[in-house]
Structure formats: C-alpha cells, structure tokens
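Objective 1b of the project was to move from sequence-level analysis to a structural picture of ligand recognition. The entry below was assembled by the postdoctoral researcher (A.K.) and checked by the PI before modelling. It contains the amino acid sequence of the target and the SMILES of the bound compound, zinc ion.
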Amino acid sequence: MIYLGEQKEALDKYYSVISCWVNSKHLGRLKESNENGYKCDDLNCSVCTRGLKKLDSHDRFFDFIIPRLDEVIKAKPDEMLQLELKLRAEWSNNGDHNLKEFKDGCSIVLKENGYDRWFTDVKGLNYDLAEWLDQHTCTFCNRQYIFTARKNAGEKGITCQFDHWFDKGSRPLFALSFYNLIPSCSLCNSSIKSSTHFNTDEYLHPYIDKDISSKFKFSSIPNTATKYGITFLNESTMDAKTKRTLEGLGTKLVYSKHSEKELQDLIDLRLKYSDNYLKNLLENTFKSELNMTKEEKYRLIFGIELEEKKYHKRIFSKFKRDIISELLSIK
Ligand SMILES: [Zn+2]
Ligand SMILES: [Zn+2]
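Corresponding predicted holo structure:
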C-alpha cells in the first residue's frame, strides 16, 4: 500500500463540487420558474451549469445533512465512526426523527443518487477526482497502472476505480467522503478488499499512515534450488497492524505469480551469472561523465522509482526496490 499524501487541493475542488450537487438535488436549479433553487457564484461550475433533477423527497434529510456536509465530506478516516455516532444522536434528538429515515437518507441520497449514479455518470466526477489526485498506480498493490485518459471531447475513456475504505453498503453516510475514496485497480477493489471490513484501529490507511512503505519489505525465499517465492522480511516480528493490512489486501497473493517473472529476472541478474551482474548494471551501464543520479539509473535500468513519494508513478517500484536491495546485500 502507498501513502496518498495530504491532497488538500484535490479535497477543496472535490468539496465545492459535492456541495453544489447536494444543494442542487435538494432545491433544484435556480431559474425563473424555481426562485428557491440553488446556483453557486462560479459561472463555469460543472454542477450548477447543468440541469440537475431535484430529488423530490428526503427534505428532512437534506435539511439535516447540508449544514453538516463539511464534516461528512472532509471527515478524516479515524474520525468517521465517531462522527457517524454523533450524527445519529443529533438526528434522533430532533423531535420525531427516526433512525430509519436517517439511514434511508444516507443510502438513497449519498450512496445511490450520489455515488452510484452521479459520481460515475457520463461527465464522471470519478474522472475529475482521479485527475486531481494524480496517482498513476493502484494505491493498494502498486502492481497495475490506473491512468485516467479521456476521449476527444473530454468524455469517458479509462480511469481508476474508487474503493470505499468503509464499505458504502454498511456505511452509506461516507459514500461520498473524500478520505473514504481510495484510487485503486479493479482487482484490489472488487476481488480482494471487498471481503474484508477495514477500520483504522486495526488496519493502516493510505491517508493516515505516512510511513506505510517502510513498514514492510518484500523478500525472496528459495522453494527449490532454482525457484523462488515471494514473502515479507521479518514477517514474524512485523507489527500486527501492518501484518493484518497486508493480509486484508492479499498483497502476498497478488504478487505470488510474479515470482516466476520479475522476481526471477532480478535473481538471475544477481545469481545466474558468475559476476554480480546486478551491481555491474548499476555501476557500469552509464559513463560517469553523464553524472546520472541513482534515481535515474533505477528508472532506466529497472523501470521503477526509487523515492517513496514517487512509488505510485511506476508499477513494481516498492517490490523491485526491496528485492534489489536484498540481492545487492548478498555477499
Ligand atoms: Zn456550483
Ligand atoms: Zn491493485
């Protein structure tokens, strides 16, 4: 898993779009025939310039959630469960409000209309958010590219999937919350992580844990005289949170088949030939007068980024970096 950074600019852009959407769904668009409608000050607003259809129900939910939208959309991952409890209590203390109405509001407004229909619709806020976040490989595996590319007129082409850290089925209140949307590949989102319910006490989070990448190291383990498998260094002494996270994300599983490919290639470079060809490649491939940095050498020779904050830009950066450093340390 890779740390996603602060992403403050992306959050601000995202929040203003969400705010216009929620207000427009509640009040409809401001026009002559709808004097009580909503329209923000931005003449180019991607939401307010479109004729969004008002949602003709859930008025009490809208009245409740709009003044608290800031809290819901910007909630930090480790504050979300507390916030949910707080909002449920505030709702319940409101005269005749019952919790089913609150739950329905979250499901129908935020999840079904918000995330399922609007977030991924034709114009696609998912494309905008992916571009604002600017992550090039899957946050969970760093094994697949998750580029966003649009067709000519800015229409849909390809983009990442967004995994809900707190799943949107059981926690629809956070279906549109910024820090709950993790850019990922389809395998990690739908096949692997969906089976595990994550929480921030027991699992690392890509918006909280800055040092995720240094909490574990990939390592190779000989299965036979010539075949190797992929494991983690010091797995038995690894802290419980990291171990649980790697298991929940199926990291070892998704990397397992790479033992015959990328891992074997690196091992061959180190062990198959009489010289330490791996070291040779790094030290002798480029003439010294080229003054190449270590980062440039790793990018050109192995196709990876060496700096942790750039891991997301190239697939296999974390994996190959760990394996190469292990192989270089063999005497
Ligand atoms: Zn607007
Ligand atoms: Zn992935």
